[in-house]
Amino acid sequence: MSTTIETATAEAPPPPVKRSSRGPWRLVWDQLWAKGSARFGLVTVALLILLAVLAEPLSELGGWTPEEFDKRAVDPYLGGQPIGDFGGIGTRHWLGVEPATGRDLFARVLHGGQVSLLIAFTATAVVVVTGTLVGIAAGYFGGRTDTVLSRLMDLTMSFPSLIFMISMMSVAKDVNRILLITLVIGLFTWPGIARVVRGQTLSLKHREYVEAAKVGGARPWRILTREILPNVSGPVIAYTTLLVPGMIATEAALSYLGVGVRPPTASWGQMIAESISFYETDPTYFLIPTAFLFLAVLAFTLLGDALRDILDPRGGRS
Amino acid sequence: MILYLGRRLLGALGILLAICAITFTIFYLLPADPAVAACGKTCSPERVAEVKAAMGLDQPVWEQFATYVTGIFAGRDYGSGAGATHCGFPCLGYSYEYSLPVWGLLTDRLPVSVSLAVGASVLWLVLGLGAGVTSALRKGGAVDRTLMVFSVGAASLPVYFTSIMLIWGVVRTAGLLPYPSYHAFTDGPVAWASNLLLPWIALALLYAAMYARQSRNSMIEAMAEPYIRTARAKGLPPRTVTVKHGLRSGMTPILTIFGMDLGGLLAGAVITESIFGLPGVGRLFYDALVRSDQPVILGVTLLAATFIVAANLLVDVLYAYVDPRVRY
């Protein structure tokens, strides 16, 4: 990441006055911050990540671990309904408790967020790395490489992805569900970004500076990493941010259908799945993970939209 | 055009075969022994071997695959002697769970999924494109902002939340509609539509939001093209400029996405169908998963892939009519 920024900065035209020097990324940041919806997205994303990272100490502060039962918080005579209004929200349990078990929702939703965001980020990383590599290779080398890789993209895109993900997750042995879900989501999502990168690379590879590097004796690897990659990084970053909400939603959908993360591990989708039968008797239990899921998807979408407008005003979306 | 179509059809067939092979390998190699599952827990090893032979599972994988693929086109016979059953074209095998041909199960459930998908898609096209185009034409205004805030919010809501809220609000609290149960269109269009209305809305809301955002972007891009300026400059009325020149090229990217989405939904919306209890292909798929009924899983996957490939093909052909720049 840091190399990308350095290269991109190095390639910007030298600013006239040294003191007011602003790299292109600084400009992006300024434009982002100037936009209300983007600012909301940025702050929410930062907050959610912070909550997920600090899940452990924060739940300790709340006094409960995510798997700890609290039988005193639920009413055994009312079918395990939480005692108190709004699902038992109070000083003892900040976001209330789960019916029947009395597990602390604050601790669970934070730990669930950890799992959900971890899967979303790693899956996105897998997709971006694979997609960029394939796209750059297809666009730059052309010919047979391009044909084979493009066919592969077509093939992957013709898969009924959700149905396929569900069935792969359901037949797989219980090894590491989190790793598995990441790979399965990644397997079907890479062609989108590969297409974008391929298109960009095609338009870049005949630019003068690429020709100049070639004449200067640079090897393909150097041209790809030093000339092409920094210039496709804008659309890639915008597209990456827009991928994250889809990943969060997909993980939630898989866990909701019972083929994703398995209990006792919590994720937002898995919590929603468990809470859905209580939506009438204990709406708080249903609304809390849903609200977190909604906020996360919304915030990443807003941020991605703004980034796309700034970094890739036209094109890139084919 | 004919040559192009022929080439594309061959390509589509190749893709389907590849998908079939990959699906087959994954689902026949990974999971537990289907013969044991089909036979039950108290089965003797000899009986399992018999069942295996009857199901053709004692053959090597590639041979099973070849039998499966030829079975699709030519039909195949199960078992031998008096107990033999013939499974005609297109034979997708027998369900382990129901002991019925998979094709029959799929065709039984298909009308439900198609009703759901087609109804929802009409709704989301009208809502989504309407909102998107309106926004694009009033870019930056209050209408645009309101619509976009709504659509980004709606696109972030998971479909199970919308569904539950609709059931809670419309069915449980207000009692306006009955809890959805499927009625065939031929039995009465009113019952058909009123029962499917909630699932349509739930599904369409999500897609409409995405389409509004997409169509707004592509419409804005289209309206910035030089030929729009030319059309305006030569004095065409604004309506003609928007509809004939803007809309036509602005909607072509939407066509591609629509093909993919509708193709994917025709073979069942797993979550929506299971929440509303609609007996569609998605529900069949979900039940098959729970019982590891592999022929059904494979059948649904193939059906879904066929729909997607066919939709893509159709869209590419339609492009020639919608976009005058496309020639084959």
UniProtKB/TrEMBL annotation, chain A:
The keyword Transport applies. The chain crosses the membrane at residues 36-55, 115-140, 152-172, 178-197, 236-259, 285-307. GO terms for cellular component: plasma membrane. It comes from the Bacteria. Residues 1-21 are annotated as: Disordered. It holds the Pfam family BPD_transp_1. It is found in: Cell membrane. Residues 113-304 form the ABC transmembrane type-1 domain. SUPFAM superfamilies: MetI-like (SSF161098). GO terms for biological process: transmembrane transport. Keywords: Cell membrane, Membrane, Transmembrane, Transmembrane helix, Transport. Residues 1-11 have a biased composition (Low complexity). PANTHER family: D,D-DIPEPTIDE TRANSPORT SYSTEM PERMEASE PROTEIN DDPC-RELATED, OLIGOPEPTIDE TRANSPORT SYSTEM PERMEASE PROTEIN APPC. Belongs to the binding-protein-dependent transport system permease family. This is Peptide ABC transporter permease. It comes from Kitasatospora aureofaciens.
TrEMBL record, chain B:
It is found in: Cell membrane. GO terms for biological process: transmembrane transport. Residues 110-319 form the ABC transmembrane type-1 domain. It is a multi-pass membrane protein. Its main location: membrane. InterPro entries: BPD_transp_1_N, MetI-like, MetI-like_sf. The keyword Transmembrane applies. The keyword Transcription regulation does not apply. GO terms for cellular component: plasma membrane. The chain crosses the membrane at residues 9-30, 114-137, 149-171, 191-210, 254-276, 296-322. Keywords: Cell membrane, Membrane, Transmembrane, Transmembrane helix, Transport. It holds the Pfam family BPD_transp_1. Belongs to the binding-protein-dependent transport system permease family. This is ABC transporter permease.
